[in-house]
């Protein structure tokens, strides 16, 4: 749902924090991102946000309807960062690939904990609507009608955000667990009886290479090939 007029008016009131910073929606979004990246999304509350912003807990409600409204604003901030980095490509397919890459990078690489927290959310806010409009426009440039463009938009966004959540979750595991998981794949050929699992045993060296790196580009390649093949 779009931001209400009441929120916009309230957001323009000049109120300062204990450190002298002027309060705004952006100050709360900054505080939320820092809290999530350092302590996890579960710590978000009116009190923790107030402490991070240097404000009274009640001040949050001058700018947001509640903590979940802040989470949606974090999601929209991340989409906006991706859009600001995006440059159109040589054609509609190249442009789609570039858009998917910059958004994935923001969610999975720049802010993995925040990405994990907001990737499954719908913000309904301006940057999300911009991303929808851009993606649908590129798909229409590829020759798809409105309904098919909407279907492929869902598939593309689901694949990109799903990959971002998967990689963000892996990146936020303790270092020793990440190492153990990678070692398990790399040692697969040693641990696996060849006679019981011949295909897995034969592919084990390749699994040991591919399963310890990002699969985003491979998934994106499949999507792009499918779009190219099905374009009118």
The stretches of 5 or more residues where confidence is low (pLDDT under 50) are: 1-14
Strand content: under 5%
Let me know the average pLDDT: 90
In N-to-C order, the SSE pattern is HHHHHHHHHHHH
Number of strands: 0
Estimated structural class = mainly alpha
DSSP helical segment count: 12
Question: What is the distance, rounded to the nearest whole angstrom, between the alpha carbons of the first and last residues?
Answer: 34 Å
How many strands, which pairing sense, and closed or not: the largest β-sheet? none
State the shape.
flat
The percentage helix is 55-70%
Radius of gyration: 21 Å
How does this model look, in words?
The protein is mainly α. Helices cover 69% and strands 0% of the residues. It has helices at 5-11, 25-39, 46-53, 67-85, 92-110, 112-118, 126-141, 146-171, 175-186, 188-191, 198-210, 216-230. Helix 2 crosses helix 6, helix 5 (92-110) runs antiparallel to helix 7 and helix 8 packs antiparallel against helix 12 (216-230). Residues 1-14 have low confidence and may be disordered.
Provide a brief overview of the structure.
This protein has 232 residues and is mainly alpha-helical. The protein is built from 12 helices and no strands.
What are the defining features of this structure?
12 helices, 232 residues, 69% helix, mainly alpha
Topology summary:
Layout: H1 5-11, H2 25-39, H3 46-53, H4 67-85, H5 92-110, H6 112-118, H7 126-141, H8 146-171, H9 175-186, H10 188-191, H11 198-210, H12 216-230
Helix pairs in contact: 2-3, 2-4, 2-6, 4-5, 4-6, 4-7, 5-6, 5-7, 5-8, 5-12, 6-8, 7-8, 8-12, 9-11
